[in-house]
Write a structure and sequence with these properties.
This protein is an alpha+beta fold. It has one domain (about 5-50, about 90-209). About 65% of the residues lie in helices and about 15% in strands. The chain contains 4 helices and 3 strands. It has helices at about 5-40, 90-120, 130-160, 180-209, and strands spanning about 50-65, 70-85, 170. It has a 3-stranded antiparallel sheet with strand order 2-1-3, with no helix packed on it. The longest helix has about 40 residues, at about 5-40. It starts with a helix and ends with a helix.
Amino acid sequence: MPEKSQQTFIKITDGLLTGLIILLAGYISFRFIMLLSGPIFGITDSTTKLFYPVQFHVEEEGIAAISGQDLPVKLKRAKAFALIEAPAPTGLLIPVKLMRFGMFGVMIWVLFLLRHIVRSVGQGHPFDPENGKRLRWIGISIIGVTLFDFIHDILLNLFITPRLSFDSIIPESSISFNVEDILSAMVIIVIGEAFRIGAEMKKEQDLMI
């Protein structure tokens, strides 16, 4: 990639990452303020609603038209989004919301790290040992978000799902643990550590020369 095109790409990427950081930070700040003004200060707002995915048992039969044949299809399990209207109980709403804020906070941290890596490339120092450390922290952050999401599901399934009642469906408890994200994070951590060691070795060789 030509030098000018490379610098343009780096500037655009840097700008996009900065914009995402500002948007996420602004969104979290707004939601946090509205959360406080809802259940704590007594101002009812749409942000005091609880919105989360739910899994339920269903018995439904249909037909799939494949290759000129009508094949029978049975639905056994389905997913939807449950919306509990405001005001949700403060004792439940605040912990769940704080968990989500924590996940957004980790996402902002990852974007910060990515921006530092992009800027180091733009400055002509892609093989900085610090970039290896940043990759390692990105991997650790992904593991953290996965664990946050797992605990978030546990809280909802313990305190919300058993209290749901509908006429035609039966809600089921569902806890998801994304193994793919954990494996991806471990790969990033290993690559980051290898990158850091390689960068330090290159730095030592340059000093010897």
